[in-house]
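Replying to the earlier thread about multi-chain prediction with a worked example.

Input:
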Amino acid sequence: MEIGVCVKRVPMVGGKIVLTPGAQEVDTRMSGFTISPHEECAVEEAVQITERLGGTVSVITLGPPAAADQLRDALALGAKRAVLLETDGAEWGPIATAAAIVAEARRRAGAGQGYDLLLCGNEAADTGDYQVGIRVACALGWPCVTGIKSLEVTETAARARREYRGGEESFEFGLPAVVCVKEGINLPRYPSLPGRLRAKRAVIEQHAPARQAEGLTKRALHVPETERKQATVLGTGAAAVPALIEVLEEWGVLS
Amino acid sequence: MTVLCLVEQDADGTADASLRALSFAAGLAAGAPVAAVLFGTAGQVPRGLLAGHGAVRAHVVEPGDIDGYAPQAWARALAGLAAQEGAAAVVAAATDRGAEVMAYLGAITGQPMAANCVTAGPAGDGSYDIVRHRWAGLLLEDARLDGSPALLTVATEAVPAVTVPAPPALDVQPYQPVLAEGDLRVRATEGAGHTSGASLATARVVVGGGRGVGGPDGFAPLEELAGLLGGVVGVSRVVTSEGWRPHRQQVGQTGTKITPELYLACGISGAIQHMAGCAGARHIVAVNTDPGAPILAHADCAVIGDLGEVIPALVAALRARSGPA
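Result:
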């Protein structure tokens, strides 16, 4: 089983998001980078599948040279091969990103080691475009499912489940396919020391894809003005309960 | 220059998110006709409701053509309708299905798709100026969308449903899509365990539990409280990553976005990724031992104290209130 996992280098945000002076990017001088939480789970899922069925997990990212850090993080978790689709650091939209991934999938197929399964996070933590996996699948003519929180894979087919309005729905489809997963599909492992050492030494395959035009153009980012409320403290401990009941009654939330 | 809007139906009727998307579509159309697109039987079409939210037409794809949920087939139908109507834009609520179908529509038509928009208006040259969520709403992006048709999903927790007084009668038309090979390859089967009970996303009251709950055994009082308030329990990310509660209960950027009347956040510090999930709550009450917890900057009211003391007292008070007078 050849599995490709698409990950994205995103800023690590903590207490507050701060923008760069031109309001084009998140200021990362104090924070650093990580991969989106859904994608951590995608890497874990791929590693678990190859532990059962055999095969290779390749981790793929599109980004600046520094995105090699995120590839090495995934290698430390059990991915065996890493592919950097290198950009000049500018943000690529979903159409251009999908085209670069499609080119990688075709290149791999051309080498006789085509992917049976491509895993993506359901959406990137930062841009939240919700579409790269589907665009990749449509270009390759593969089935695609999204929002997946449970996945069973055989050599030739898969069954995937996701939440739907308090219950769940399932999908059955043949491979090759693209599956976009959500956090909750598994609990990702922590990297092992041998894993980290292996990741440090690993050779990263690099390609420089051509950037396709995109019809959605970012102009500026801004932090929404949220109503800073500063809560009214009703009191301390059980003594505050009567005041709380009064407030809830006033809001009409008690039947 | 019609604007098309995907309208989702479920067991409880028309999804509230779809009515908000319809209102958004009406705003975008600025007087041009808005046509709803539904998958189901013509008899199920809530004519008054759709007309009352700005639709003048409804195109219905009947089960004989596409039975159940098949995202690529739904997108193919939207693509066909967009071509038939010469649609300027196609809009859907950014629900799981809405986002998925619109992504397929983008892929099928080769057009860009702007996800989680909060506002959109014509820029004058055929393109649109939009504002959309990034970081699940923690950031906003101003962007230019240049597509024909323009494809957008709507962050419906951030836009209102707007009703139209005395609308004209809805014109309901069946639509038979021309499907392509592979369109029905992926289709949903509803799994076991489907409940019609309150789901986290639509619950009127959510009782949240965070690290302060202390462990998997600490949730029984919160469940009891949620039951008394007619609500459900939601949790923070740390609770699911510790394995205390299942991930489906997580509120936040990587979990569920909630829109309750009341969010009672117990032992939750208020990380921004969590607040992205409960920004749609009408009222927030924090119960926390720490008066300096970040969540207090987002809450209306707070009770400072230990959950082990406050929650049982609140449960007792609610029981006494609903008991015999």
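Residues 37-53 of chain A form the longest helix (17 residues).

Feel free to reuse this layout for your own posts.
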